[in-house]
From TrEMBL:
<dbReference type="GO" id="GO:0030170">
    <property type="term" value="F:pyridoxal phosphate binding"/>
</dbReference>
<feature type="binding site">
    <location>
        <begin position="74"/>
        <end position="75"/>
    </location>
    <ligand>
        <name>pyridoxal 5'-phosphate</name>
    </ligand>
</feature>
<keyword id="KW-0028">Amino-acid biosynthesis</keyword>
<dbReference type="GO" id="GO:0006564">
    <property type="term" value="P:L-serine biosynthetic process"/>
</dbReference>
<dbReference type="InterPro" id="IPR015424">
    <property type="entry name" value="PyrdxlP-dep_Trfase"/>
</dbReference>
<feature type="domain" description="Aminotransferase class V">
    <location>
        <begin position="3"/>
        <end position="347"/>
    </location>
</feature>
<keyword id="KW-0808">Transferase</keyword>
<comment type="pathway">
    <text>Amino-acid biosynthesis; L-serine biosynthesis; L-serine from 3-phospho-D-glycerate: step 2/3.</text>
</comment>
<dbReference type="InterPro" id="IPR000192">
    <property type="entry name" value="Aminotrans_V_dom"/>
</dbReference>
<dbReference type="InterPro" id="IPR022278">
    <property type="entry name" value="Pser_aminoTfrase"/>
</dbReference>
<feature type="binding site">
    <location>
        <position position="150"/>
    </location>
    <ligand>
        <name>pyridoxal 5'-phosphate</name>
    </ligand>
</feature>
<comment type="similarity">
    <text>Belongs to the class-V pyridoxal-phosphate-dependent aminotransferase family. SerC subfamily.</text>
</comment>
<keyword id="KW-0032">Aminotransferase</keyword>
<comment type="function">
    <text>Catalyzes the reversible conversion of 3-phosphohydroxypyruvate to phosphoserine and of 3-hydroxy-2-oxo-4-phosphonooxybutanoate to phosphohydroxythreonine.</text>
</comment>
<keyword id="KW-0663">Pyridoxal phosphate</keyword>
<dbReference type="GO" id="GO:0005737">
    <property type="term" value="C:cytoplasm"/>
</dbReference>
<comment type="subunit">
    <text>Homodimer.</text>
</comment>
Amino acid sequence: RAFNFNAGPAALPLEVLEQAQEQFVEYKGAGMSLMEMSHRGAIYEGVHQEAEQLLRELMGIPDNYKVLFLQGGASTQFAMVPMNLLQPGKVASYVATGSWAAKAISEAKLFGETQIAASSEADKFMRIPSASELNVPAEAAYLHLTSNETIEGTQWAEYPDTGLVPLVGDMSSDILCRPLNVSQFGLIYAGAQKNLGPSGVTIAVIREDLIGTPSMPVPTMLRYSTHAKNDSLYNTPPTFAIYMTNLVLNWVKAQGGTAAVEKINLEKASLLYDTIDASNGFFRGCAQEGSRSIMNVTFRLPSEELEKLFVKESEAEGFVGLKGHRSVGGLRASIYNAVPRSSVQALAGFMNEFQRRHG
Ligand code: PLP
């Protein structure tokens, strides 16, 4: 298999793919694939409930939170959050940390007043603002942050304490990468296609008191209350994506849960950042120290020509997905939970070899 460093959809654990392959045509003697079954039948409902229970267990989700399986990607959450949580006389507060935060902010502007609690734009979004920089107005309906900026390669090391203002987190690219205190948040959402499974399902974890009647007209499918009341079975859910997510959650549990996964993730990230830092400036990390992501490692080479050559030569050796996002350039290695340590070791070796030949 390729050394897969894709940013998303991203690598899945090989064991999960093999299990899905084994069960694909004939699901546990049922005479059909799970994908051919009613979402109201006992077999699918069992999978649906197991996925919710496992997510609760792995993330330590308290009982007063609902777990929702939604569609439309994290991009739909950019609109659902303000549509459901913003009320007249309140403002939607955002931390501007980069490309994905910017998209969330521009959607919120469609629905009401927004405010920027802090921004790292002056530093080209290469750092996460510190808690002391945050200016959250008392009339904020919520404070939204992007836990991991997938494109810039920055990540919140610690989340801010927002007091009574509910904290909303886009965890699309780092959910389940480390232990988390869910009760710090009012709402967490994530598209599945990095750490949870294939694309097609979006997870939302929302505190029950935030699931009210929206103050603006909101289509039925875009209200959290619709999905909360119906255990995410109001309409046909993305059964295949939820089934695959359930397999991934079982895999995370078998790894030892989020604490064990974090340990491996830190080792993988160190392998790359140490290689960068030991290169005497040949490789330059994009994110500032203290804001470096353990999921997306972004770095530059001395010239764009060398960066192009790095991509070309790496592809010839079986590495996939190392070209940086078109909006920022450079290189990016996405090392989500399912990327094995051996792939990261191979990349560090390739980097050293590349520097020896071209440095
Ligand atoms: N937020 C973050 C941090 C992301 O990385 C992405 C996708 O890469 C999105 C939101 C958008 O997710 P989706 O493609 O599921 O709409």
